[in-house]
Amino acid sequence: MDVTITNIRKEFGQFPALHDVSLSVGSGELMALLGPSGSGKTTLLRLIAGLEQPTAGRIFFGEEDASLKSVQERHIGFVFQHYALFRHMTVAENIAFGLKVRPGATRPPTAEIRRRVSDLLDMVHLGGLEKRYPAQLSGGQRQRVALARAMAIEPTVLLLDEPFGALDAKVRKELRRWLKEFHDRTGHTTFFVTHDQEEALELADRVVVMSQGTIEQVGTADDVYDRPNSPFVFSFIGDSSSLPVSVKDGAVLFEGRRIGIGDDGPDGAGSIFFRPQDVAVAEDGDALRGRVIASRRLAGTRIAEVDISTNGTGHHIEIEVPLEAPVTVGGEIRFRLQHWKLFR
Ligand code: ATP
C-alpha cells in the first residue's frame, strides 16, 4: 500500500511538534525516520497509525483518505520499543490474539488460526517456541513475537517504533539483518523510527531525516550521506568537520589562508563541511598545517583531531590518517583538503 502524507501539522497545545510535513512512500518501501530526540519521529508514526489526529493536513493509504478512519479501520501493524506482549499468554496465544480480535473480520475457525500461527512462527523463525511464555524468551525473540503478532492482522502498513532500542548491540545487529530479510520476503510498506543512523542507513530503502518537526531530507543512504542538502544533515549523518570560510575568485579561504580551490559559486561568506576521509595527509611545502590535539584508533584506521587555527580561534577538524602514519599528540600534521561542500 502506498502512503501519501500531505502538509501535516501537529500541535500539542501551543507547541508545534510537526510543521508542514509531506512525504510520498511507494508500496513496499522500508522507510527509516531518523532524527534527534524530539524531532517528531514518534509523532509522525502515531499520526499514520491514527493514535493522534493532525491539526492540519491529510494522510492517504493508496487513494483513500485515512484521516477519516479509526485506528482499527487502518489495519496497522505496530511494534514498540518495549515489547507489549501479554505475559500470561504463550507465544502462540499472543500471535493468535491478533487473528481473533481482527476488527471488521469474523473470527477464523480454530484450525485456520492454528495454521496461520504456525506460518507466522516460521516467518519469524520461532518454530518450536509456541508454548513458551514471554518471560522464557530472549529480548530479540520477544521482539520477533511482537512482529509476528503485528503481521497476524495482515496489516496494510507496518509501523516500528525503535523496535530494537532496548536490546544490546549484538542482538540489535542480528535483528537488523533479519528485519531486512523479513521485509524483502513480505514486502510490507514499513516505517521504522530510529535515532541510530547506522541502523537507518543499513536497513532503509530511503531515510527521512527529521529535525525540529520538519523533514530536512528524504533519500537513499547514498543520498543523505554523500549528498546531504543542509548543514544539519551533513553534521547529523556520519562524522564531519565544518569551518567558516570566505570564497574569492574560486578560492576557499579560512582565516585568510587558501584551503581549497575550484569553487565555481559567487564570492561571499559561508561554511564548508567535510568528512575525515576527505582530508589527505600530505608532506609537500604547500600543504596545510595544524597541531594534533588528540587521536583515536578505530578498527582499521585512526582519526586525528587537529587544531588548524592560527590565531587562537580554536577551530578543530578531524582527519583520517593511515595507521602507519606517524601522529603525535602535540605535534604538527600537514594535510590537504580534497573534497568539501560549501553552504552559504
Ligand atoms: P525521541 O527520539 O526522543 O522519541 P521523537 O523524535 O520521536 O523523539 P516526538 O516524540 O515525536 O519526538 O516528540 C516531538 C515533540 O513533541 C517533542 O518536543 C515532544 O516533547 C512533543 N510531544 C510529543 N507528544 C506530546 C504530547 N502528548 N503532549 C505535548 N507534547 C508532546
From TrEMBL:
Entry keywords, A to Z: ATP-binding, Cell membrane, Membrane, Nucleotide-binding, Sulfate transport, Translocase, Transport
Keyword flag ATP-binding: yes
Top-level taxonomic group: Bacteria
Entry-linked Pfam families: ABC_tran (PF00005), TOBE_3 (PF12857)
Domain ABC transporter: 3-237
InterPro entries, sorted: AAA+_ATPase (IPR003593), ABC_SmlMolc_Importer (IPR050093), ABC_transporter-like_ATP-bd (IPR003439), ABC_transporter-like_CS (IPR017871), Mo/tungstate-bd_C_term_dom (IPR008995), P-loop_NTPase (IPR027417), Sulph_transpt1 (IPR005666), TOBE-like (IPR024765)
An MF annotation (GO) of this entry: ATP binding
Coiled-coil ranges (or none): none
Family under the similarity heading: Belongs to the ABC transporter superfamily.
Protein name: Sulfate/molybdate ABC transporter ATP-binding protein
Species whose genome carries this gene: Ciceribacter thiooxidans
